[in-house]
Design a protein that fits this description.
By secondary structure, the chain is an alpha/beta fold. It folds into three domains: 36 residues, no CATH class; 238 residues, HUPs (Rossmann fold, 3-Layer(aba) Sandwich), CATH 3.40.50; 104 residues, Orthogonal Bundle (Tyrosyl-Transfer RNA Synthetase), CATH 1.10.240. It contains 20 helices and 13 strands. The strands form four sheets. A seven-stranded mixed β-sheet has the order 5-6-11-10-7-8-9, sandwiched between helices. A two-stranded antiparallel ribbon has the order 1-2. A hairpin with a 2-residue loop joins strand 1 and strand 2. The radius of gyration is 21 Å and the shape is globular. The structure holds tryptophan. Keywords: Aminoacyl-tRNA synthetase, ATP-binding, Cytoplasm, Ligase, Nucleotide-binding, Protein biosynthesis.
Length: 413
């Protein structure tokens, strides 16, 4: 049936993100549908108001603009903070290439803000094991090398090394972390893993097991050098395609008498080609990498960034552009801090006053600036800093003292 009409539903899982195809045309991801399908909650204004009231800090642009849009029990994290009780942050990255792209930065930039505002410790899992298991062509030593290179990219996002632990699964898998992995593995049946992720009998058994590895950093006693043996709740910021892992994690947590991790979900960072797929490191023309030169950035955006503008300049002036699908506008929504400027661009582009060329120029300048800043810090990362972030024998500060309370203008009541 689907083949006859050329229509398909949208696909969102940890390996594939694709919007619905209607009459052969790829549609943008329908996020409300995802929330229904996954059974998560939308983040609403009262929740943002509460966050602002509790912290005295204006919600991050990603929250204000609905880019982090969905959650599972984020309110529990706010309850803890209100009571002065600790929690920690957990996110991760599958190191599939030597350099990260700008879309990969989203959960990390958000974690950086959360760390600054709440003072929470952060653990970052680099799943070199996952990438090896799932990619038939990747050598295990290359996966590990990518993990270390990606760790250096992540270090350039400004995390506090005293509060942040970055680890490669291949290196860190032992002791208390491995005990949790095995406890989780014992609590998940083949059927559950297969049904959650859609595996079949010819998939390797590592794939079925991998959920245990991604689940276990949600439990604080996996990190004795940070939390000792304490059982501290955790908040996982991630793109919504990772939710299936944590649905299972939350089921298992109950059985193991751990806290269920809370989640806060991001929308996907669109590929240059349009809002129906996410930026992918393995499709180089879809992505802007953290190590791209200013010229490469300019050329990629000019050449590939999907435009919501009209076919001719004349028609564009008449009808205006569509910001919803325009990739340059969408990137500005993530990276242009100034709300007023963004609103003005939206107005001018929608009315046709601003051309696609002008919009692209603005996008190029903003992305070049962002990447330049990261590259400057990346160039200063030393082996000593790598050790401070990645050495599991160096204790961390999990005290919940906000590092930079003035991250964004404090609200004056
Ligand atoms: N599986 C994720 C990826 O391929 C990496 C990851 C591991 C992760 N743990 C996580 C992502 C926790 C978000 C939150 O990118």
């Amino acid at each position: 049936m689907a083949e006859q009409t050329g229509n398909t539903g949208q696909t969102v899982n940890p390996w594939k993100v694709q919007g619905e195809i209607v009459d052969g045309k790829l549609q943008a991801i329908d996020y409300n549908k995802l929330v229904d399908q996954f059974g998560t909650r939308l983040i609403d204004q009262p929740m943002l108001d509460r966050l602002e009231k509790l912290t005295g800090v204006r919600p991050h642009v990603f929250l204000r603009r609905g880019l982090f849009f969905s959650h599972r029990e984020f309110n529990k994290i706010l309850d803890l903070y209100e009571k002065g009780k600790p929690f920690y942050l957990y996110t991760g990255r599958g190191p599939s290439s030597g350099s990260m792209h700008v879309g990969h930065m989203i959960p990390f930039l958000f974690c950086k803000w959360l760390q600054d505002v709440f003072g929470a410790a952060l653990v970052i899992q680099l799943t070199d094991d996952e990438k090896f298991i799932f990619n038939p062509d990747l050598k295990i030593d290359d996966a590990h090398k990518f993990a270390i290179e990606n760790a250096k990219d992540i270090m350039s996002f400004g995390f506090d090394p005293k509060k942040t632990f970055i680890f490669s699964d291949l290196d860190y898998m032992s002791g208390p972390f491995y005990k949790n992995v095995i406890k989780v593995a014992k609590s998940i049946t083949t059927n559950q893993s297969r049904a959650t992720f859609g595996f079949n009998d010819s998939d390797n058994i590592g794939k079925l097991h991998f959920v245990s590895v991604q689940a276990s950093p949600s439990f604080s006693n996996s990190f004795p050098h940070i939390f000792g043996t304490a059982n501290i709740p955790c908040l996982v910021p991630c793109a919504i395609d990772q939710d299936p892992y944590f649905r299972l994690t939350r089921e298992v947590a109950q059985k193991l008498k751990y806290h269920k991790p809370s989640l806060i979900h991001a929308k996907f960072f669109p590929a240059l080609q349009g809002p129906g797929t996410k930026m992918s490191a393995s499709i180089t023309t879809s992505a802007i990498f953290i190590n791209d030169t200013p010229n490469q950035i300019k050329n990629k955006i000019n050449k590939y960034a999907f435009s919501g503008g009209q076919d001719t300049a004349e028609l564009h002036r008449l009808h205006g552009g569509n910001c919803e699908v325009d990739v340059s506008f969408q990137y500005l929504k993530f990276f242009l801090e100034d709300d007023e400027e963004l609103a003005l661009i939206e107005k001018q582009y929608s009315s046709g006053e601003m051309s696609t060329g002008q919009l692209k120029q603005k996008c190029i300048a903003v992305v070049q600036e962002l990447v330049k800043g990261i590259q400057e810090i990346r160039a200063t990362v030393t082996d000593e800093l790598v050790d401070q972030f990645m050495n599991p024998t160096i204790p961390k500060d999990a005290s919940m003292k906000p590092c930079v309370p003035q991250v964004q203008e404090l609200k004056i009541e």
